[in-house]
Amino acid sequence: MPELPEVETVMRGLAAVLQGHRITEVEVRRHDLRFPFPADLARRVEGRRVLSFRRRAKYMLMRLEGGESLLIHLGMSGRMVARRAGEPPASRIGPQGAVSDARGHNAPPEAHEHLVLATDHGWRVGFVDPRRFGAVDLVPTAQEDAHRLLQGLGPEPLEGAFTPAMLSAALAGKRTPIKAALLDQGVVAGLGNIYVCEALYRAGISPRRLAQTCTGARAERLVLAIRAVLTESIGAGGSSLRDYVRADGELGRFQDRFAVYGREGEPCPSCPGVPPCQGIRRIVQSGRSTFFCPRRQR
């Protein structure tokens, strides 16, 4: 599932194409994804100008004139595809159907493209989601945080409210492993398996350590590590492992910098060959793979 850096990267790509422009046409190609689209989605979005974007955890909010926001969640396999109207998808270039006119009519659709937005400056943005675990909804802009999907989320890890003191307070008394605690969206918003593994490695903290012991100095190391790994990943366009691509179709490159994730059996970058280091290990926690260096992480 795309995590915070991937969602942030996609949102920035959409903002570059859509912000300040008017949605002239909305095509809804099925009635639902994870849950039904609003029944009057096209009517409520068509003709509206895109004012701004906001990311909350792993959700994107496209703020429209008129006081509503289009909430988008990519789910497991969702991606946003932006291209000029009349330009076939890269996978479809060739003798496979007509090129569309300026409004996007008769364009060969991207496979599993369930929602299409066309703009007043000749662009189209499609929501592609083969597994249909994504979500789209409309919410009053003034009440975004009251939406059922956003209620109860913890602080944003790249904003000022995410401090060592706040994290210490959130972890105090938690007898779950620190890996599970950091995946709890009520503790901190937007983190997933990849970036928790990488942040724990940088902080030198074992994923098996009880969360309640990760206060004080350990919480300070965690906050710094989380911020660093997220910032670096956003700068690299996120991590492309399976389905994720940026809105322009390019891959993210942060997977080239993983220290531990997916590297079971490889040498630890910090202590290669230093006894008793035996390289990166993989364990399973709550059904998810965890990668770490037992020598470095305590």
Keywords:
alpha+beta, single chain, hydrolase, 298 residues, multifunctional enzyme
Spatial separation of the terminal alpha carbons:
28 Å
SSE-based structural type: alpha+beta
Strand content: 15-25%
Seen as an oligomer or otherwise, the chain set is: single chain
The biggest beta sheet is recorded as: 4 strands, antiparallel
Keywords: DNA damage, DNA repair, DNA-binding, Glycosidase, Hydrolase, Lyase, Metal-binding, Multifunctional enzyme, Zinc, Zinc-finger
Domain Formamidopyrimidine-DNA glycosylase catalytic: 2-134
GO biological process, one term: base-excision repair
Family: Belongs to the FPG family.
Structure description:
Residues 86-105 are annotated as: Disordered. Monomer. By secondary structure, the chain is an alpha+beta fold. Helices cover 21% and strands 20% of the residues. The chain contains six helices and ten strands. The chain has a four-stranded antiparallel sheet with strand order 1-6-7-5. Strand 2 (50-56) and strand 3 form a beta hairpin. Helix 1 crosses helix 6 (217-235), helix 3 (164-171) crosses helix 6 and helix 5 (193-203) crosses helix 6 (217-235). The longest helix is centred in the C-terminal third of the chain and has 19 residues, at 217-235. The protein is elongated, with a radius of gyration of 21 Å. The two termini are 28 Å apart. Mean pLDDT is 89; it is low at 91-106.
